[in-house]
Design goal:
Keywords: DNA-binding, Transcription, Transcription regulation. InterPro entries: CheY-like_superfamily, Sig_transdc_resp-reg_C-effctor, Sig_transdc_resp-reg_receiver, Tscrpt_reg_LuxR_C. GO terms for molecular function: DNA binding. The protein has 2 domains: about 1-135, 3-Layer(aba) Sandwich (Rossmann fold), CATH 3.40.50.2300; about 140-220, Arc Repressor Mutant, subunit A. The protein is built from 12 helices and 6 strands. The protein has helices at about 5-20, 35-40, 60-70, 85-90, 105-115, 125-135, 145-150, 155-165, 170-175, 180-195, 200-205, 210-220, and strands spanning about 1-5, 25-30, 45-50, 75-80, 95-100, 120.
Length: about 230
């Protein structure tokens, strides 16, 4: 059985497999109905197409198929995946992963392996996945974390108080410091954050999650930031 969101692709693949002697039970377009269709027809092998192998919930149909029809071998048909895509497919119960641009001979080999109870995934896909897992790409900068590291603990508390709408007098009283010292702290915070006003500082802190991180850091230190 071939199931894919793109009906033309599903029907073309089904036709190609029929020409090579395979009996294809059905070719259906809506992936949302894949589980029901496969469960009702119980094919030996199901080729399940997906456009986003790393997206949450993509392989929920595979989980249901394997729960209700464990004898059905499910091969995922999709784009070049990242390691999470391959891992998610196998974790859901798929027995293989075939690229959308694979030649029909490669698809047929995967089907044969699936029927034999073997894992069906191209060696180059596994090699690429293992390579990325062993040498992960650097994650994009976390702006909130970067900004938090620029501030001293006392400046972080000042920023939290600024975000709460406290003026210089209230900040000074709450921190037990002179108003002039509180004013200096505020100016240093604005300078380090590269903003021109308290309102901008509060907006930046909220947008980047800096306030949440500041609270987490205070809790990890055993109490409020002082």
């Amino acid at each position: 059985m071939v199931v894919d969101d793109h009906r033309l692709l599903a029907e073309a693949l089904a036709s190609a497999l029929k020409l090579r002697g395979h009996r294809v039970l059905a070719a259906a377009a809506p992936a949302a109905g894949a589980a029901e269709l496969v469960i009702s027809r119980a094919p030996e092998v199901c080729l399940l197409g997906t456009a986003a192998p790393a997206a949450p919930g993509t392989f929920d149909p595979v989980v249901r198929i394997k729960r209700e029809r464990p004898q059905v071998a499910v091969l995922v048909l999709g784009p070049v995946p990242d390691p999470r895509g391959i891992a998610a497919a196998f974790a859901a119960g798929a027995c293989g992963y075939v690229r959308h641009d694979e030649r029909i001979e490669g698809v047929e080999r995967a089907i044969m392996k699936a029927r034999a109870g073997e894992a069906a995934v191209a060696p180059q896909l596994l090699q690429g996945a293992f390579s990325e897992l062993l040498n992960p790409a650097a994650q994009p900068d976390d702006e909130g974390q970067r900004l938090l590291q620029m501030l001293t603990p006392r400046e972080v508390e000042v920023l939290v108080r600024v975000a709460d709408g406290e003026d210089t007098r209230v900040i000074a009283a709450g921190m037990g410091i002179a108003p002039s010292t509180a004013r200096t702290h505020v100016q240093r915070v604005l300078m380090k954050l590269g903003v021109g006003s308290r309102l901008e500082a509060a907006a930046l802190a909220a947008r980047t999650g800096l306030l949440d991180r500041a609270g987490a850091r205070g809790a990890a230190d055993g109490g409020p930031v002082l």
